[in-house]
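thought: fold this chain, then report.
action: predict
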Amino acid sequence: MKYLAALCVIVLAATAALAAEDTPPPWAYPVAPPAAKPAAPAPPLDPEPKRVPGSDVALTLAQIRDIGRGPPDWHPNDHPPMPEVVAKGRAGGVLACGYCHLPNGLGRPENSGIAGLPVEYIVQQVRDFREGKRRSSVPAMGPPANMAKLAAVTNDEEVRIAAQYFASLPRQKWIRVVESASVPKTRVAGSMFVIEDTAAVEPIGVRIVEVPEDRARTDLRDSKSGFVAYVPPGSIKKGEAYVKTGGGKGAACTVCHGHDLRGLGPMPHLAGRSPSYIVRSLWDLQHGSRAGAWAPLMAESVAGLSVEDMVNIAAYAASLDP
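observation:
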């Protein structure tokens, strides 16, 4: 009887662990919890023009938050002229690509950094969204859902024009990766995590905590203010070993993504990209939420990954120079 009880405990524990692995990690899919009570009316926007370091541009909050106006371009000399679809979008629901992905294409944790990706890869991903072959494992997460709606109303010509623009942009160091056993407490604001209280800390556990380096500049959508990603101690070294060998669970990541993870042919680079995004991609591929043209190539490699494996892989990849 005693042995039967012990066996039951083991089975229940294993079942709980398996169930946990079937639940998308909430730290990778930022979704704000429902409000406990109706939100108070928003105060009027500050009408005073805002500025960011290293820029002569002045914009009001109303201009910065006007998605229909296009992205706030604080540093227009840092990139080629943006095509119309990137800078302003188009009537009919096509929002400016540069608003979410930024004029320099480096993006934010809630979407994707697409600077320097192969043209055909970008085109294919938009096509996958349009055809319902790419979606988020967490439907409530806004940016992927918005991308699917946007892809549905774009045409092939403007997608290729945007892809050519972003592919031409240089990759830049955008994310600082820090190994730490404890991290500041965070909350979801919009579609990303932000530090709630710099004085309050908590164990990192098996997760990645990616937040703005400078919240104020990020809120102004400053394309020169990047992010910091806290990762568990030892995760970078573990990730390097997995990336180079496959950890006995699949092919080494370097086979398709290059020995330095800077991409190979139409395969995207992983070096220096948002680790939150990398984990979402791995999870979505593993659970069938991404089933586009190249997804089958990843199927075997991601099938046996645990969340900890994903954390380690993403930590190592993000720590590399792009």
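thought: worth noting. The CA atoms of residues 31 and 141 lie 6 Å apart.
final: tokens above.
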